[in-house]
Structures
1.
Amino acid sequence: MAYDTIEFSLRDGVATLVLNRPDRLNSFNEAMHQEVRQALTEVQAAVEAGDCRALLLTGNGRGFCAGQDLSDRAVSPKDGAPGAEMPDLGYSIETYYNPLIRTLTALPVPVVCAVNGVAAGAGANIALACDLVLAARSASFTQAFAKIGLVPDSGGTWQLPRQVGLARAKGLAMLGDKLSAEQAEAWGLIWQVVDDEALRDEAAGLAAHLATQPTRGLALIKQALNESGTNDLDTQLDLERDLQRQAGRTADYREGVAAFMEKRSPKFSGQ
Ligand code: T3D
């Protein structure tokens, strides 16, 4: 399928989705929402068919994603008068942003995000919903919502306190200041900072590596770590037992043990 607002490819087990509205810092308009959704539907089908074993998400230009395209939200003061129609942002969240975060979180393959520049508003939280986040040294993250009277969405109020603690989460959310990629790495918000010119190759290499690994096992790791956010220890121990049972029945586990015993490199099929 041909896309206008994104670039999408599937090669050697890696799906690559590039946000491509660089003159608007890859902010989301309706068309981009629809195309991202369509591409992720293609990814889901390819994962089920065993043709996709990792997803790479990044952006073109100097921004990763500036969240919602605010030119679609401009409301003149008279529009805010009593009785005037204001946009229903809850509808937008329910229709687009929440399903996107749920899809990325549930996707049973690793999602690598290469944050190539500023990640603002929902753009920041979409990046943080990915599994392994690399960021260019010049990139930054901003919970821009507070600056326009909104609340962090796309899972931001869930991710931030868990990843950086409540004090830093409140500072980031209430001030909306830019957090540098290096500070984000130091605070444990992202996996790694990479030099700008190396980012795309580094992220593509990481996704390519993950696509050769035990895909089922990685999906179970993702599930266990995601569920740990809300489980108590007993529930998590039970979950580990159940997931290990599943992992122990995969062809890749058999291959991993055989390769270890035979002192050779494993060749994982993803099954
Ligand atoms: O509405 C709903 O559906 C509810 C859901 C909301 C989710 C959200 O994401 S709400 C938050 C929306 N995003 C923002 O508030 C961020 C707005 N942008 C900025 O604060 C700044 O642009 C940045 C901090 C991201 C980057 O700053 P800077 O100085 O590097 O770049 P810039 O000059 O501000 O932006 C470059 C261009 O991109 C500029 O256009 P121009 O002047 O060159 O024609 C700017 O207007 C445009 N741009 C940046 N962000 C957006 C945008 N255009 C539309 N929407 C944007 N979000």
2.
Amino acid sequence: MSEFNYSVDAEGVATIAWDVPGKSMNVMSVEGLKELEAHVDRALADDKVKGVILTSAKADFAAGMDLNVMSQDRDSVGENPAQAIFDWIMSNHHLMRKIERAGMDPKTLKGGKPIVTAMPGTALGIGLELPLATHRIFAADNPKAKIGLPEIMIGLFPGGGGTTRLAFKLGAMAAAPYLLEGKTLAPAKAKAAGLIDEVVPADELLTRAKEWVLNARDADLVKPWDAKGYKVPGGAPYHPSGFMTFVGASVMVHSKTWGVYPAAKALLSAVYEGLQVPFDTALRIEARYFTNLILNPSSQAMTRALFVNKEALEKGANRPAAPDQRVKKLGVLGAGMMGAGIAYVSANAGMEVVLIDASQEAAEKGKSYSEGILDKGIKRGKLTEATKAEVLGRILPTTDYGRLEGCDLVIEAVFEDPKVKAEVTARAEEVIPAEAIFATNTSTLPIGELAKASRRPEQFIGIHFFSPVDKMLLVEIIKGRETGDRAVAKALDYVRQIRKTPIVVNDARFFYANRCIIPYINEGMRLVKEGVAPALVDNAARLLGFPVGPLQLVDETSLDLGAKIARATKAAMGEAYPDDAVDEVVFWMVDQGRLGRKAKAGFFDYDEAGKRLGYWQGLAGKFPRAAEQPELSEVKHRLMMAQVLEAVRALETGVLTDIREGDVGAILGWGFAPWSGGPFSWLDMLGAARAVEICADLKARHGARFEAPQMLRDMAARGETFYTGTAAAA
Ligand code: NAD
């Protein structure tokens, strides 16, 4: 199947138009690269062709490489995967170099054919690496277009020559935001930054590109790095200013990644080494680091979780068959922190929202939350007053339940009290259409119990958001015992409308995410009770790749919330309650008024503005520092196993039904070490047998909570992994 269209016009300008069949956006495949090379060869060999325009027949240029290829099992590449991958990368470099040299004489650098890129819209990843090899890049003045190299965000780096080309073109310092942070820009800014050359009106894109092709001279085709005496902007690594760049960059990378993300380090090494050698050698170096990275299990797991599986879940991998359930009119009950956020994201996605609270004042306050976010967007130049008015115009703040008439979905976010929830459920159901779905945003109450207040429990479901709603990407959908398929489809279609990532889980205490976060926080507090230094606890978590340690996290979520959850859990579990040791810390902290950041006093001290100052020294008065501190690896194992074993138990007991949801949900829901690809991917890297061994050791010293679940022991016995064994998604 052809992925590019080739044509030559009367003036001898060939156009290679990228148009992958059946896709709204071009992505590069292995076959696509081969086909492109054949077209380039044909144009270079044809005497009638004076030059080439590489463009796209779609609204955008390209989204990048087909990552399904990149996340495939490395063993499938043959007996010597490193060699096979290296050879493949080098063949891509060869193609890009062929475009760059465009048939010119290697000595005189004369006689080449001009090849330009004309990009109508977004150009990401290889969709920019390829243009960087052409002689001039024209972009349509399309403010929605994103241009950049975001590979680093999913555990890779630009390995199609983009790393080397951008570093040679801009210098290491100027290229850093695009290579190391994956920053993308709209065309005008991309031009100012030196990523592209020209921004032109959309309807002039091809004519301007053609004009350039027909007027280009030999010198216009020579890349600076192929010209004699080229000096990289900002200086090569051994130049005094270049040296400073690399010292700073190494520190920055390490402080941001804590050494656990292989991509950033590999990228920096490729640039550092590459800038000291000729361009072609630099490409070989880039290829070596890229091969190494592709073979690193972390990059494979990150790509799989953060791209392939995340996208599959967003596209409805677990959606039951049901007609389109997109929401038109949404009712939100409770305009507090969560309700206000839910109203904002929904109105922003185009839904009519009726926002109800007990008083008109509270409802209005909930709506003003949207105003605040929209104002910030205007300040940053991201939206207009007109868009703000449109979004706000969709939110109706009221106390009148009658206004819920015609709502096809209602989400309640009132107080976490079953009685209040039952009352608002009944009041809403009196008004909403018989086919409407009712959802609760409860974080702790069983869906099956709350559904008892509903007249139609098959249309009752949990839609659990994370705070702050407008920032957090995950939504947990919870099926009660009686929840029907249409309710699940409705929840999934709604989550898709608001562009978040859903996971669908079964009803059980704390569902999935909170079920795993709580033991993580609790393990941190157990360590404190044993006299382990708080800095050791939080830093062990950071070294595992968690954005925040458990003590910092509990300060953010507040200790009184922890105490409330502990009391409710204890009441529900009775004798079986396992966390008395944790409660000793939590309740004592609450008694001291150390509720966390909101009280400007918790495990940390804070200044008036709420900035953390350092760990609170008073803690040691109650829980004295142990003379002997545990090994770092011991603290790491405890913090990690506390969460991953809970994830395995959730799978074993059928709360989770798909390991992809377990992995994606963990990263997006509570920041579970993204480099690992999630708890199941992490266990796969470690190996079930080794995990069982660590658990046996921890259990012997710290108790039954570290007992390896049967599922893990069976996997160890069979030598299975989650992603290749029986637990793997169909
Ligand atoms: P909140 O206290 O900020 O807001 C609750 C709102 O409900 C208040 O504005 C209150 O006036 C209103 N309300 C109470 N009774 C009402 C009634 N009878 N009719 C109409 N409105 C009424 O609480 P929140 O943090 O927004 O939490 C709301 C729900 O979301 C809870 O079930 C909570 O467990 C859940 N949740 C909270 C978080 C979080 O991080 N805060 C995260 C996920 C889920």
